[in-house]
Predict the structure.
Amino acid sequence: MTTAPRERPRDPDQARNPDHARYPDSAGLVAIRRGSLSLLLHRRSAAVVAVLVVLLAGVMLLAACVGQTYVPPGEVWRVLRGHPGPYDLVVGELRVPRIVLGALVGAALGMSGALVQTVTRNPLASPDVIGVGHGAAAATVLALATGTVASPGALPAVSVAGGLAAAALVYVLAWRHGMQPSRFVLTGVGIGVALSAVVQLYLTESELAAAEQVKLWLTGSLNGRGWDQAVPLTWVLLLTLPALVWASRALRPLGLDPDTAAALGVRVHRTQLALTVLGVILAATATGAAGPIGFIALTAPQLSRRLTRSPQLPLTTSALTGALILVTADLTARTLMPPLEIPVGALTALVGGPYLLWLLTAPKS
Amino acid sequence: MRDRPTVRVAWLATALLLALATVALSLAVGTRQVPLSAVLDALVHGGGSRDALVVRSLRLPRTEVGLAAGAALGLSGAALQAVTRNPLADPGILGLSQGAAAGVVFAIAGGLANGFGGYVWYAFTGAVVAAFLVYAVASRGRGGASPVKLALAGTALSAMVAGATTVVLTSSSATLDQFRFWQVGALSGRDAGTVGRMLPFLAAGTLLVLVCARGLDALALGDDTARALGHRVQLVRGGAALGATVLTAAAVAAAGPIAFIGLAVPHLARRLVGGGHRWALPLSALLGAALLLAADVAGRVVRAPAEVPAGVMTALVGVPVLVVLVRRKAVAV
């Protein structure tokens, strides 16, 4: 019986890098350190982020050029620099705000999907699963049905409140000596079903015109929306930015099983709650801005994970993927059957779905 | 405790009695109350009294649909949760509900069918086509139709189909006007032949799922373990998924996309008799039937003489129950 020799780190860098101990599977991770600050980079993720940024910029520019009237890129650039010109109205007042709003909503939904799926440990979970979308929809429908909302301008506030309230209700009902992901998800689905039953009932009992209006809102659209919706959403994103930076690292250990995470010194329940709250706030504000646009929160994280091949759901990539899907879908919605506008929520899945299916079936490269 | 045969038999018997009781209620209760003796009389001897006509021409078909659709949804939900190993799985997961909805929208928008009776085949075809597409996509690539790939492919395809139907619905108000009444899911207004047309599919689906019961038990242990135990994993998964597909398609074709039963009932059944599928599957069927019928009866009473559709009532009645069960740790998650 010989005692095993104490293992010496072969690589001096490994000895100094505690992340190696924590994530033995840290191939492709690069740690950048400055004193007490550190940043962990995943090489492939960084490349994916760069590609997505270029793609997103390209699609946004294209969306500014294309529409009922074609505007050359040079003219778009002139508008963006603030020089007066003939296209100020169509590009500056109509297209740009709508494109920016689309990117913000998509990013918010993508990130909230990554947060919620990490907490629930379920690739089918999305903010909708824990009641946000259904809560927003039910609140909006009730407000319309009872006529409590005097102006349509108050509807976003109502839907944000509804989404937050529903998610809070789910959390309270599912909390019992801690938060078990499966219990959380089941409760959320149940509450969501009940809320959507209320919406369905309204759809069958109301006049056709009212039903159509609700159906349109339920599908989600960027039509006729712009700075009024983009500004509050920007504020929310800016205010949550520090939390999001924290979250992108806090997500990591939660990808492991809860006991391991706890053993690593992670306060699992607290982290779960914080990430959930963050995800719900993002989803609720996005829903308030553009209606309950489906599919993005569900699939952007899954797409991102497969693109980056990272072990956990990456936050930055999810945001970019979400923005890319929504901006592309809205561009399609505007230009597919002019002058008829298709609600963008009907197209997010048609744009993003094939891509996800292709990724699912792609052989290992 | 849960695994004792006597306990299991007791729960099955209880569920059977519950289902029978809801059948009796469904025949007797409504805007026109019919005494049980008169119900029996109408079923056995026929007769031309008003009571007998109400029972035989209106409530009997409705009860048949509720019984068949509820049982089919419970059974297929339990099978799909096992196949995808996901507690969130329900009959919507393989694109079934959305496929059926697309079939109905296609029928309405194309002016091909009118009324719930006319939608049946379109809904059935839509559901089956969608499920086959999902399975075909999921079984390509690495690892075949793994649970996560099935779930994701189903969700993606569902969303795509839903997007396409929404495009039609938001651009054609006449279609929406008819579709919204089908979409909510209800048992009323179905004609007498509805269940008869679906019976062969219901029987075949039930048989397929039940035959796979032992294999599903093994799947719960993971694919490798199941293989080591001598089960053919892809065959079990494919067979159970096919059975569940046919069952759901028939149920949705008959009653519309009734949510929640396929999701919640299996959890309750597993809680009562444990995870063994030879017990949990039949119990899910009985509980599903009882829940749907009870919801339908409640919908007739709550706002009489107006009716609340069964699809709405299952949610409003079932959700509080589910939440309580989940909180009491009574649901096997």
Remarks:
- The CA atoms of residues 32 and 227 of chain A lie 37 Å apart.
